[in-house]
Design a protein that fits this description.
With 278 residues, the protein is an alpha+beta fold. It has seven helices and 17 strands. The chain folds into two domains: 50 residues, no CATH class; 204 residues, Fumarylacetoacetate hydrolase, domain 2, CATH 3.90.850.10. The mean pLDDT is 96.
């Protein structure tokens, strides 16, 4: 299944994509949120789609983030070997974890706001994991597969000066308003194999990131298992799993985003995003 949300900011409704068309599920579900995922919502949705014809979503309706605001967003740093190399960092021996404020989440085609006093706003295309049910102290990576609802495109926008020079607290540089475009679709885990997906990001039409999920150091199942040893992963939580080489900070000289820049992102099977910086 392909889950979406649509509507104006703060008024998003749940929907699905069926045969390429957006369909409205709001008469049957309140939202794609903790309550939905934790209470076997995906099975109920699958049953609904077998028996009901849903109304179409207007073509003009805004695409929202594909899930409601989660309890938490967990980020994984330096999870691609080529990205670690371009930043002169050692390959991590275990996942490097940071938190990203949930207030940063926006729709996949919404504008990115360059923060006040920012000079180093950077791009990072990533695979996003959506947790399907509460996970705590999972015993194996194989078990972790059953706790993933699906996957989406996660744009981990980052302000590098805030991240590295303002006390070396990554969360500062990751959590600015609009710094997490998410979507456009959540593809359920039964419909996609994320072990070998091409991923690309362009800035003003120039290809900057050209990677593949097969280059991950720690795969999604390992990450879910690992994180569950330290905290409860709650239904609807998001894990953004790291970025391949090609970020602005890694260029010589570094290149950062400015107002008017246009970003285009795509991951095989998960659709595309586009943002304008303002």
């Amino acid at each position: 299944m392909k889950l979406i949300r649509f509507g104006e900011v703060g008024q998003e409704k749940p929907g699905v994509v069926v045969n390429g068309q957006r369909k409205d599920c709001s008469a049957h579900f309140s939202d794609w949120d903790y309550k939905f995922f934790q209470n076997d919502g995906l099975r109920k949705l699958a049953d609904l789609l077998k028996t009901h014809t849903l109304p179409a979503v207007p073509d003009s309706a805004r695409w929202g983030a594909c899930v409601a605001r989660p309890g938490k967003v967990l980020g994984i740093g330096l999870n691609y070997r080529d990205h670690a190399k371009e930043t002169n960092a050692a390959i991590p021996k275990e996942p490097l974890v940071f938190l990203k404020a949930t207030s940063a989440i926006i729709g996949p085609y919404d504008n990115i706001i360059i923060p006040r006093n920012s000079t180093q706003t950077d791009w990072e295309i990533e695979l996003g994991i959506i947790i399907g049910k509460n996970a705590k102290y999972l015993t194996s990576t194989a078990q972790a597969k059953d706790y993933i609802a699906g996957y989406t495109i996660s744009h981990d926008v980052s302000e590098r000066e805030f991240q590295f020079e303002h006390g070396s607290q990554w969360t500062k540089g990751k959590s600015c308003d609009t710094f997490h475009p998410l979507g456009p679709i959540l593809v359920t885990s039964d419909e996609i194999d994320v072990s070998n997906l091409a991923m690309q990001l362009k800035v003003n039409g120039m290809l900057r990131q050209n990677g593949n999920t097969n280059e991950m150091i720690f795969d999604p199942f390992y990450l879910v298992h690992h994180l569950s040893q330290y905290m409860t992963l709650e239904a609807g939580d998001v894990i953004t799993t790291g970025t391949p080489a090609g970020v602005g900070r890694g260029m010589k000289p570094p290149l950062y985003l400015k107002a008017g820049d246009i970003l285009d992102l795509a991951i095989d099977g998960l659709g595309n995003q586009r943002q304008i910086c303002v």
